[in-house]
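@channel sequence for tomorrow's demo:
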Amino acid sequence: MKRAGLIVNPQSGKSSGKGLRLMEMVRSRPNISARLLERFEQLPNHLNELARDGVTDLFISSGDGTIHAIQTELAERKPFRNFPRLSLLPHGTTNMTAADLGFRHHSIADQAEFMTNLAASHLRERPTLRVVNPNDGRPRHGMFLGAGATTSAARFCQQALNEKGVKGNLATFATLAVAIGQVAFGSSHAYDVARFDQPCPMRISIGTTDICNGAQLLMLSTTLEKLTLGTRPFWGGKSGSLRTTILPFPVPSLARWLLPIMYGRETRKVPEGSLSFASQGFDITSPSTYIIDGEFFDGPEGAPLKVETGPVFTYLCG
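structure tokens (generated this afternoon):
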């Protein structure tokens, strides 16, 4: 028998209140189990309780970071006998995962009604991206991994924009505008931490084969079909679950290549040194701090970071 569960992170979206309003609507309904996630330390116990309640469909009111934390708990600790189906409610500051896999109806009333009845839904399946061996020893499951300028831009977005209440696509667009301005109107100085366009040493390999080895601008890898602003910066065909793109340093001409890289077809033309490939996993060695779904972490010391395809989750999209 189906039963809905709801986890609300009240801090997501800078306390927009959407999740709390939804919880108020459903908390007295007998076929819904609801939990408020005020601290991430509560998450294991909340999931244990939801599993004991027999929850089959888990609704998550949050942004990317909470989704990533829940996926990691479900995949690594396995509190449920079978994974619950997930429904992502885009109530957070950053909702890249929900933009691709999220619940389609944004009305709080519609969300509450759907949770109550669990009617037939459009379903999508997608594996996670699993980071095997971070420096702290805690594997992580997310949908997006970045290094180099990807990490620098994300840190700027969080600190300069999200913390001031600018969020979602507006924050992404503003960050992109800053990056374009730095390249177009300034000269890059190696290792100027105030700039995104810096050389980052990277060695990426699959088995014994090097994909790249040298200074790059950025790396990004994902199991999502599209990223923020609807971008699809991948080409060359999808023969594996992980789509990975590497852009070279020095930075190619933005006027010539920005739109083709972000929105081109699988057969698009790309600047020399740009790489895009699909795989089930890879190793990356780099001094860069990494980012996975909004969380920064370091790779292992003296060894490559191992990235692999994680388990498949089913998403209810409404």
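heads up for whoever presents: The mean pLDDT is 90.
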